[in-house]
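Encode chain A's predicted structure.
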Amino acid sequence: MNNKFDISFAQRLDLEDPLSKYRDRFHHPKHKDKNSIYFTGHSLGLQPKNATYYFDQVLEDWQSMGVDGHFHAQTPWFDYHKSLTDHVATLVGAKEKEVVTMNALSVNLHLLLTSFYQPTKKKYKILCEPNLFPSDLYVLRSQVELKGFDPEESIIFLPVNEDGVVEERDVYSIMESYKDQLALVFLGGVNYYTGQVFNIEKITQKAHLYNIMIGFDLAHAAGNIELKLHEWGVDFAAWCSYKYLNSGPGNVSSVFIHENQIRKNPFRLSGWWGHIEQNRFSLSQKFEAINTAEGWQLSNAPIFGMSIYRVSLEIFNEIGVSNLVAKRIKLSGYLEDAIMSFNNLSSKIKFKIITPGLAEERGSQLSIMINFDGQKIYRALKEAGVYVDWRKPDVMRIAAVPLYNSFEDIAKFYHILFKCI
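Encoded structure for chain A:
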Protein backbone atom coordinates (compact mmCIF):
# COMPACT_ATOMS: atom_id res chain seq x y z
CA MET A 1 0.00 0.00 0.00
CA ASN A 2 1.04 3.60 -0.62
CA ASN A 3 2.49 5.44 2.41
CA LYS A 4 1.23 8.69 0.90
CA PHE A 5 -2.20 7.65 2.15
CA ASP A 6 -1.23 6.89 5.75
CA ILE A 7 -3.80 8.49 8.03
CA SER A 8 -1.08 10.35 9.95
CA PHE A 9 0.29 11.85 6.71
CA ALA A 10 -3.19 13.03 5.67
CA GLN A 11 -3.77 14.53 9.12
CA ARG A 12 -0.59 16.58 8.73
CA LEU A 13 -1.90 17.90 5.41
CA ASP A 14 -5.10 18.94 7.16
CA LEU A 15 -3.16 20.72 9.90
CA GLU A 16 -1.40 22.75 7.21
CA ASP A 17 -4.69 23.61 5.50
CA PRO A 18 -6.02 27.07 6.52
CA LEU A 19 -9.58 26.09 5.52
CA SER A 20 -9.74 22.88 7.57
CA LYS A 21 -11.56 24.68 10.41
CA TYR A 22 -14.65 25.11 8.21
CA ARG A 23 -15.27 21.37 8.21
CA ASP A 24 -16.65 21.63 11.76
CA ARG A 25 -19.25 24.15 10.64
CA PHE A 26 -21.22 21.41 8.88
CA HIS A 27 -23.25 18.44 10.06
CA HIS A 28 -21.87 15.12 8.81
CA PRO A 29 -24.06 11.98 8.55
CA LYS A 30 -22.97 9.36 11.06
CA HIS A 31 -21.79 5.81 10.51
CA LYS A 32 -21.35 3.71 13.64
CA ASP A 33 -21.34 6.88 15.76
CA LYS A 34 -18.55 8.47 13.73
CA ASN A 35 -18.61 10.92 10.86
CA SER A 36 -19.19 9.20 7.56
CA ILE A 37 -17.02 10.01 4.55
CA TYR A 38 -19.28 12.24 2.48
CA PHE A 39 -18.28 12.56 -1.17
CA THR A 40 -21.67 13.49 -2.68
CA GLY A 41 -21.64 17.27 -2.40
CA HIS A 42 -22.13 17.31 -6.17
CA SER A 43 -25.62 15.95 -5.50
CA LEU A 44 -26.60 17.45 -2.13
CA GLY A 45 -24.35 19.59 0.04
CA LEU A 46 -24.08 19.12 3.78
CA GLN A 47 -26.10 21.23 6.19
CA PRO A 48 -24.33 24.19 7.82
CA LYS A 49 -24.67 24.01 11.59
CA ASN A 50 -26.08 27.52 11.68
CA ALA A 51 -28.46 26.86 8.76
CA THR A 52 -31.49 28.03 10.74
CA TYR A 53 -30.04 31.37 11.89
CA TYR A 54 -32.04 33.50 9.45
CA PHE A 55 -34.80 30.91 9.21
CA ASP A 56 -35.49 31.36 12.93
CA GLN A 57 -35.59 35.14 12.41
CA VAL A 58 -38.28 34.72 9.78
CA LEU A 59 -40.33 32.44 12.05
CA GLU A 60 -39.98 34.88 14.93
CA ASP A 61 -41.08 37.83 12.78
CA TRP A 62 -44.00 35.88 11.35
CA GLN A 63 -45.08 34.91 14.86
CA SER A 64 -44.84 38.42 16.29
CA MET A 65 -45.80 40.58 13.30
CA GLY A 66 -47.94 38.53 10.97
CA VAL A 67 -48.46 40.34 7.68
CA ASP A 68 -46.44 43.34 8.86
CA GLY A 69 -43.32 41.23 8.40
CA HIS A 70 -43.47 42.07 4.69
CA PHE A 71 -42.16 45.55 5.50
CA HIS A 72 -41.06 45.49 9.14
CA ALA A 73 -39.32 42.13 9.67
CA GLN A 74 -35.65 42.15 10.67
CA THR A 75 -35.06 41.52 6.96
CA PRO A 76 -38.30 42.65 5.29
CA TRP A 77 -39.89 39.96 3.14
CA PHE A 78 -40.91 42.45 0.45
CA ASP A 79 -37.37 42.50 -0.95
CA TYR A 80 -35.78 39.62 0.95
CA HIS A 81 -34.04 38.43 -2.22
CA LYS A 82 -31.84 41.53 -2.08
CA SER A 83 -30.17 40.24 1.09
CA LEU A 84 -28.56 37.56 -1.10
CA THR A 85 -27.71 39.65 -4.15
CA ASP A 86 -24.22 40.92 -3.35
CA HIS A 87 -22.91 37.49 -2.33
CA VAL A 88 -24.55 35.77 -5.33
CA ALA A 89 -23.01 38.33 -7.68
CA THR A 90 -19.57 37.85 -6.12
CA LEU A 91 -19.90 34.06 -6.33
CA VAL A 92 -20.42 34.03 -10.11
CA GLY A 93 -18.53 37.15 -11.14
CA ALA A 94 -21.54 39.31 -11.96
CA LYS A 95 -22.86 42.80 -11.37
CA GLU A 96 -25.57 42.96 -8.72
CA LYS A 97 -28.14 44.11 -11.28
CA GLU A 98 -27.47 40.92 -13.29
CA VAL A 99 -28.54 38.35 -10.66
CA VAL A 100 -31.66 37.44 -8.74
CA THR A 101 -32.75 34.45 -6.66
CA MET A 102 -36.20 33.01 -7.33
CA ASN A 103 -38.10 29.78 -8.03
CA ALA A 104 -36.46 26.40 -8.71
CA LEU A 105 -33.87 25.65 -11.38
CA SER A 106 -36.01 24.10 -14.14
CA VAL A 107 -38.63 26.83 -13.68
CA ASN A 108 -35.94 29.48 -14.10
CA LEU A 109 -34.56 27.79 -17.20
CA HIS A 110 -38.01 27.91 -18.76
CA LEU A 111 -38.32 31.62 -17.92
CA LEU A 112 -34.90 32.40 -19.37
CA LEU A 113 -35.41 30.36 -22.53
CA THR A 114 -38.77 32.04 -23.10
CA SER A 115 -36.82 35.29 -23.36
CA PHE A 116 -33.57 34.20 -24.99
CA TYR A 117 -34.48 31.34 -27.30
CA GLN A 118 -36.09 33.33 -30.07
CA PRO A 119 -35.90 31.15 -33.17
CA THR A 120 -36.52 32.28 -36.71
CA LYS A 121 -37.24 30.21 -39.81
CA LYS A 122 -33.51 30.27 -40.57
CA LYS A 123 -31.90 30.30 -37.11
CA TYR A 124 -33.81 27.96 -34.85
CA LYS A 125 -31.48 25.14 -33.79
CA ILE A 126 -30.00 24.52 -30.34
CA LEU A 127 -26.58 22.98 -29.72
CA CYS A 128 -26.03 21.03 -26.49
CA GLU A 129 -24.10 18.08 -25.10
CA PRO A 130 -25.76 14.63 -25.49
CA ASN A 131 -25.49 13.75 -21.80
CA LEU A 132 -27.10 17.00 -20.72
CA PHE A 133 -28.96 16.60 -17.43
CA PRO A 134 -32.32 15.02 -18.37
CA SER A 135 -34.46 17.82 -16.95
CA ASP A 136 -32.54 20.36 -19.03
CA LEU A 137 -33.19 18.34 -22.15
CA TYR A 138 -36.90 18.16 -21.32
CA VAL A 139 -36.91 21.94 -20.90
CA LEU A 140 -35.19 22.45 -24.26
CA ARG A 141 -37.49 20.08 -26.10
CA SER A 142 -40.63 21.69 -24.73
CA GLN A 143 -39.35 25.19 -25.53
CA VAL A 144 -38.63 24.12 -29.10
CA GLU A 145 -42.16 22.71 -29.42
CA LEU A 146 -43.64 25.83 -27.85
CA LYS A 147 -41.98 27.92 -30.56
CA GLY A 148 -43.45 25.67 -33.26
CA PHE A 149 -40.41 23.58 -34.23
CA ASP A 150 -39.59 19.87 -34.16
CA PRO A 151 -37.19 18.90 -31.33
CA GLU A 152 -35.87 15.92 -33.26
CA GLU A 153 -34.71 18.20 -36.03
CA SER A 154 -33.92 21.31 -34.02
CA ILE A 155 -31.65 20.00 -31.24
CA ILE A 156 -28.08 19.19 -32.28
CA PHE A 157 -26.00 17.04 -29.95
CA LEU A 158 -22.25 17.41 -29.74
CA PRO A 159 -20.25 14.22 -30.37
CA VAL A 160 -18.48 12.58 -27.44
CA ASN A 161 -15.53 10.23 -27.11
CA GLU A 162 -15.71 6.73 -25.64
CA ASP A 163 -15.87 8.19 -22.12
CA GLY A 164 -18.81 10.49 -22.89
CA VAL A 165 -16.55 13.56 -22.93
CA VAL A 166 -16.93 16.37 -25.48
CA GLU A 167 -13.73 17.35 -27.27
CA GLU A 168 -13.45 21.13 -27.08
CA ARG A 169 -12.45 21.45 -30.74
CA ASP A 170 -15.75 19.79 -31.71
CA VAL A 171 -17.72 22.56 -29.99
CA TYR A 172 -16.07 25.16 -32.19
CA SER A 173 -16.16 23.18 -35.43
CA ILE A 174 -19.86 22.37 -35.08
CA MET A 175 -20.71 25.97 -34.20
CA GLU A 176 -18.87 26.95 -37.37
CA SER A 177 -20.74 24.35 -39.44
CA TYR A 178 -24.18 25.38 -38.17
CA LYS A 179 -23.52 29.08 -37.55
CA ASP A 180 -26.33 30.17 -39.88
CA GLN A 181 -28.87 27.82 -38.25
CA LEU A 182 -28.07 28.03 -34.55
CA ALA A 183 -30.24 30.26 -32.37
CA LEU A 184 -28.75 29.02 -29.11
CA VAL A 185 -25.86 27.13 -27.57
CA PHE A 186 -26.85 25.66 -24.21
CA LEU A 187 -24.45 23.67 -22.02
CA GLY A 188 -23.97 22.53 -18.47
CA GLY A 189 -20.98 24.54 -17.24
CA VAL A 190 -19.79 21.35 -15.54
CA ASN A 191 -21.31 18.19 -16.96
CA TYR A 192 -23.23 16.30 -14.29
CA TYR A 193 -22.19 12.84 -15.55
CA THR A 194 -18.54 13.16 -16.54
CA GLY A 195 -17.58 16.16 -14.43
CA GLN A 196 -16.18 17.84 -17.55
CA VAL A 197 -15.59 21.58 -17.11
CA PHE A 198 -16.38 23.51 -20.29
CA ASN A 199 -14.32 26.51 -21.36
CA ILE A 200 -17.16 28.94 -20.75
CA GLU A 201 -15.20 32.03 -21.71
CA LYS A 202 -13.93 30.78 -25.07
CA ILE A 203 -17.18 29.03 -26.04
CA THR A 204 -19.08 32.24 -25.30
CA GLN A 205 -16.70 34.27 -27.47
CA LYS A 206 -17.12 31.83 -30.37
CA ALA A 207 -20.90 31.82 -30.07
CA HIS A 208 -21.06 35.60 -30.17
CA LEU A 209 -18.74 35.66 -33.17
CA TYR A 210 -21.51 33.86 -35.05
CA ASN A 211 -24.34 35.91 -33.48
CA ILE A 212 -25.55 32.93 -31.43
CA MET A 213 -27.15 33.33 -28.00
CA ILE A 214 -25.42 31.30 -25.28
CA GLY A 215 -26.68 30.09 -21.89
CA PHE A 216 -25.52 27.70 -19.19
CA ASP A 217 -26.92 25.49 -16.48
CA LEU A 218 -24.39 26.06 -13.69
CA ALA A 219 -25.88 23.63 -11.15
CA HIS A 220 -22.57 21.76 -10.93
CA ALA A 221 -20.41 24.87 -11.40
CA ALA A 222 -21.64 27.49 -8.91
CA GLY A 223 -19.64 27.17 -5.71
CA ASN A 224 -17.36 24.65 -7.42
CA ILE A 225 -15.33 26.50 -10.06
CA GLU A 226 -14.38 30.14 -10.48
CA LEU A 227 -16.88 32.02 -12.64
CA LYS A 228 -16.66 35.45 -14.29
CA LEU A 229 -19.99 35.56 -16.06
CA HIS A 230 -20.11 39.31 -16.69
CA GLU A 231 -16.53 39.54 -17.91
CA TRP A 232 -16.95 36.49 -20.14
CA GLY A 233 -20.10 37.94 -21.70
CA VAL A 234 -22.38 34.97 -20.98
CA ASP A 235 -25.91 35.88 -22.06
CA PHE A 236 -27.79 34.00 -19.35
CA ALA A 237 -27.36 31.23 -16.78
CA ALA A 238 -29.14 29.57 -13.89
CA TRP A 239 -28.14 27.26 -11.06
CA CYS A 240 -29.65 25.54 -8.04
CA SER A 241 -28.41 26.17 -4.50
CA TYR A 242 -28.47 22.71 -2.97
CA LYS A 243 -25.36 21.04 -4.38
CA TYR A 244 -22.09 22.86 -3.72
CA LEU A 245 -24.05 25.76 -2.21
CA ASN A 246 -25.47 23.69 0.68
CA SER A 247 -28.93 25.25 1.03
CA GLY A 248 -30.95 22.05 1.44
CA PRO A 249 -32.89 19.65 -0.80
CA GLY A 250 -34.78 21.23 -3.68
CA ASN A 251 -34.03 24.75 -2.54
CA VAL A 252 -34.13 27.95 -4.56
CA SER A 253 -32.28 28.82 -7.74
CA SER A 254 -30.43 31.94 -8.83
CA VAL A 255 -30.17 33.36 -12.33
CA PHE A 256 -27.74 35.56 -14.22
CA ILE A 257 -28.75 37.80 -17.13
CA HIS A 258 -26.03 39.91 -18.70
CA GLU A 259 -26.71 43.63 -18.56
CA ASN A 260 -26.49 43.76 -22.36
CA GLN A 261 -29.52 41.47 -22.55
CA ILE A 262 -31.39 43.30 -19.78
CA ARG A 263 -30.91 46.55 -21.71
CA LYS A 264 -32.72 45.07 -24.72
CA ASN A 265 -35.81 44.47 -22.56
CA PRO A 266 -36.80 41.21 -24.30
CA PHE A 267 -40.15 39.51 -23.97
CA ARG A 268 -40.54 37.64 -20.70
CA LEU A 269 -43.31 35.89 -18.82
CA SER A 270 -44.39 38.54 -16.36
CA GLY A 271 -45.58 38.52 -12.77
CA TRP A 272 -46.15 41.15 -10.12
CA TRP A 273 -42.85 40.65 -8.30
CA GLY A 274 -40.99 41.68 -11.45
CA HIS A 275 -43.03 44.89 -11.67
CA ILE A 276 -41.35 48.10 -10.49
CA GLU A 277 -41.52 48.26 -6.70
CA GLN A 278 -43.18 51.68 -6.43
CA ASN A 279 -46.33 50.43 -8.20
CA ARG A 280 -46.22 46.74 -7.37
CA PHE A 281 -49.38 46.85 -5.26
CA SER A 282 -51.30 49.18 -7.57
CA LEU A 283 -54.07 47.89 -9.78
CA SER A 284 -52.08 48.65 -12.93
CA GLN A 285 -53.10 47.04 -16.20
CA LYS A 286 -49.66 47.36 -17.77
CA PHE A 287 -46.57 45.47 -16.62
CA GLU A 288 -43.57 47.72 -15.98
CA ALA A 289 -40.46 45.59 -15.54
CA ILE A 290 -37.72 46.36 -13.04
CA ASN A 291 -34.69 47.24 -15.15
CA THR A 292 -32.49 44.50 -13.66
CA ALA A 293 -32.59 40.71 -13.49
CA GLU A 294 -35.29 41.23 -10.85
CA GLY A 295 -37.64 42.05 -13.72
CA TRP A 296 -37.85 38.30 -14.46
CA GLN A 297 -39.40 37.53 -11.05
CA LEU A 298 -42.96 36.26 -10.99
CA SER A 299 -44.12 35.74 -7.43
CA ASN A 300 -43.37 36.44 -3.80
CA ALA A 301 -39.94 35.28 -2.75
CA PRO A 302 -39.74 31.84 -1.04
CA ILE A 303 -38.44 33.36 2.19
CA PHE A 304 -37.75 30.19 4.19
CA GLY A 305 -35.58 28.67 1.49
CA MET A 306 -33.74 31.90 0.85
CA SER A 307 -32.95 32.25 4.55
CA ILE A 308 -30.94 29.01 4.51
CA TYR A 309 -29.26 29.85 1.20
CA ARG A 310 -28.22 33.18 2.76
CA VAL A 311 -26.29 31.41 5.52
CA SER A 312 -24.29 29.33 3.05
CA LEU A 313 -23.55 32.32 0.82
CA GLU A 314 -22.08 34.14 3.81
CA ILE A 315 -19.67 31.24 4.36
CA PHE A 316 -18.53 31.45 0.72
CA ASN A 317 -18.10 35.20 1.03
CA GLU A 318 -16.08 34.78 4.22
CA ILE A 319 -13.67 32.30 2.61
CA GLY A 320 -13.48 33.61 -0.95
CA VAL A 321 -13.90 31.51 -4.08
CA SER A 322 -10.20 31.69 -5.00
CA ASN A 323 -9.21 30.15 -1.66
CA LEU A 324 -11.74 27.36 -2.09
CA VAL A 325 -10.47 26.67 -5.60
CA ALA A 326 -6.88 26.44 -4.32
CA LYS A 327 -7.86 23.80 -1.77
CA ARG A 328 -10.11 22.00 -4.26
CA ILE A 329 -7.15 21.54 -6.61
CA LYS A 330 -5.07 19.93 -3.86
CA LEU A 331 -7.90 17.65 -2.74
CA SER A 332 -8.71 16.61 -6.29
CA GLY A 333 -5.11 15.72 -7.06
CA TYR A 334 -4.81 13.70 -3.85
CA LEU A 335 -8.06 11.86 -4.59
CA GLU A 336 -6.95 11.13 -8.15
CA ASP A 337 -3.69 9.61 -6.86
CA ALA A 338 -5.62 7.47 -4.39
CA ILE A 339 -7.95 6.11 -7.05
CA MET A 340 -5.35 5.44 -9.70
CA SER A 341 -3.02 3.64 -7.28
CA PHE A 342 -5.44 0.70 -7.28
CA ASN A 343 -4.78 -0.13 -10.90
CA ASN A 344 -1.43 -1.58 -9.81
CA LEU A 345 -3.08 -3.79 -7.20
CA SER A 346 -5.58 -5.72 -9.32
CA SER A 347 -5.27 -7.29 -12.75
CA LYS A 348 -9.04 -7.74 -12.97
CA ILE A 349 -10.60 -4.54 -11.62
CA LYS A 350 -9.53 -1.31 -13.30
CA PHE A 351 -10.48 2.29 -12.47
CA LYS A 352 -10.56 4.92 -15.19
CA ILE A 353 -11.13 8.57 -14.37
CA ILE A 354 -13.20 9.92 -17.26
CA THR A 355 -13.29 13.49 -15.95
CA PRO A 356 -10.87 15.26 -18.30
CA GLY A 357 -8.03 17.60 -17.48
CA LEU A 358 -5.53 18.15 -14.70
CA ALA A 359 -6.67 18.95 -11.17
CA GLU A 360 -6.29 22.67 -11.98
CA GLU A 361 -8.75 22.31 -14.86
CA ARG A 362 -11.43 20.26 -13.11
CA GLY A 363 -14.04 20.87 -10.48
CA SER A 364 -14.49 18.80 -7.33
CA GLN A 365 -16.16 15.86 -9.06
CA LEU A 366 -14.30 12.85 -10.39
CA SER A 367 -16.30 10.37 -12.44
CA ILE A 368 -14.75 6.92 -12.34
CA MET A 369 -15.48 4.14 -14.81
CA ILE A 370 -15.11 0.71 -13.22
CA ASN A 371 -14.71 -2.21 -15.61
CA PHE A 372 -15.79 -5.04 -13.30
CA ASP A 373 -18.10 -5.43 -10.29
CA GLY A 374 -18.57 -1.66 -10.06
CA GLN A 375 -21.95 -1.78 -8.38
CA LYS A 376 -20.65 -4.33 -5.88
CA ILE A 377 -17.80 -1.99 -4.98
CA TYR A 378 -20.22 0.92 -4.73
CA ARG A 379 -22.50 -1.02 -2.34
CA ALA A 380 -19.53 -2.10 -0.22
CA LEU A 381 -18.41 1.51 0.11
CA LYS A 382 -21.89 2.58 1.19
CA GLU A 383 -22.01 -0.17 3.79
CA ALA A 384 -18.67 1.08 5.11
CA GLY A 385 -20.00 4.61 5.56
CA VAL A 386 -18.65 6.18 2.35
CA TYR A 387 -21.14 8.36 0.47
CA VAL A 388 -20.58 8.17 -3.30
CA ASP A 389 -23.11 7.71 -6.07
CA TRP A 390 -23.60 5.42 -9.04
CA ARG A 391 -24.62 6.25 -12.61
CA LYS A 392 -25.46 3.42 -14.98
CA PRO A 393 -23.91 1.62 -16.64
CA ASP A 394 -20.51 1.74 -14.92
CA VAL A 395 -19.66 5.16 -13.46
CA MET A 396 -19.15 6.12 -9.82
CA ARG A 397 -19.16 9.84 -9.03
CA ILE A 398 -17.06 11.22 -6.17
CA ALA A 399 -16.56 14.84 -5.08
CA ALA A 400 -14.07 16.03 -2.47
CA VAL A 401 -15.63 19.38 -1.53
CA PRO A 402 -13.16 21.90 -0.07
CA LEU A 403 -15.67 23.37 2.38
CA TYR A 404 -16.03 20.23 4.44
CA ASN A 405 -13.97 17.36 3.02
CA SER A 406 -10.46 16.67 4.29
CA PHE A 407 -7.30 14.90 3.23
CA GLU A 408 -8.02 12.45 6.04
CA ASP A 409 -11.37 11.64 4.38
CA ILE A 410 -9.47 10.67 1.24
CA ALA A 411 -6.88 8.59 3.10
CA LYS A 412 -9.64 6.70 4.94
CA PHE A 413 -11.45 6.19 1.65
CA TYR A 414 -8.24 4.72 0.20
CA HIS A 415 -8.02 2.11 2.97
CA ILE A 416 -11.74 1.26 2.81
CA LEU A 417 -11.60 0.89 -0.97
CA PHE A 418 -8.55 -1.37 -0.61
CA LYS A 419 -10.62 -3.69 1.59
CA CYS A 420 -13.56 -3.55 -0.83
CA ILE A 421 -11.53 -4.83 -3.79
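The chain has a mean pLDDT of 96.
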